[in-house]
Every structure is written in structure tokens, then in C-alpha cells.
Amino acid sequence: MTEITFLASSKSFKIPDEIEEYNNRKLFEREEEAIYFSVQEVDEFWRESTSGLFTMPYIFETRGVGNKLVLTYLRRNENRRSA
After folding, report:
1. What is the mean pLDDT of residues 71-79?
2. Which of 12, 22, 30, 37 could be stapled to 64 by a disulfide with Cβ–Cβ 3.0 to 4.6 Å?
3. Distance in angstroms (rounded) separating the CA atoms of residues 8 and 18
4. What is the DSSP letter of 8?
5. What span, in angstroms and rounded, lies between the C-alpha atoms of 10 and 29?
């Protein structure tokens, strides 16, 4: 089964450095730690396919949403918007 998760935002996102470092590791203590978290802008196919579903200007495809770092990501971006 394939899964895709979309994230819509009013601002662009950047993965924090600590998540990049986590994603770049080669050794993991447990199998579930090998699930990396990433966010990238959707490609043209998904942009057209989701047209009209989101009202925010930035649409991203996320992977590894089951990773615990997703909360770190959301907190960091919330703090960035508040600043």
C-alpha cells in the first residue's frame, strides 16, 4: 500500500539541521528509527491533482510522518512563524 501525506502552508518550510543530521545517519538502534522525515514541494503531477483542495499557497509532500521528529519539525516552524 502506498501512502502520501500533504502539508499545506502559508510559508515555505525548511527541515531543521537536527532532523537533517538524523536522516543522514547510517546506524540505528531500532528498526523504527530508520524511518526518516522529509518535506519537499509537490511535483507538477500532484500540484494539478490537488488543485482546489488546498487554499494555502505552499503544498508539500511529506514522508515519514510516523517519525517522532515530525513534532520537532512542526514546533520549529511554528516558532519561526511567530518570530
Report:
1. 71
2. 37
3. 23
4. E
5. 37
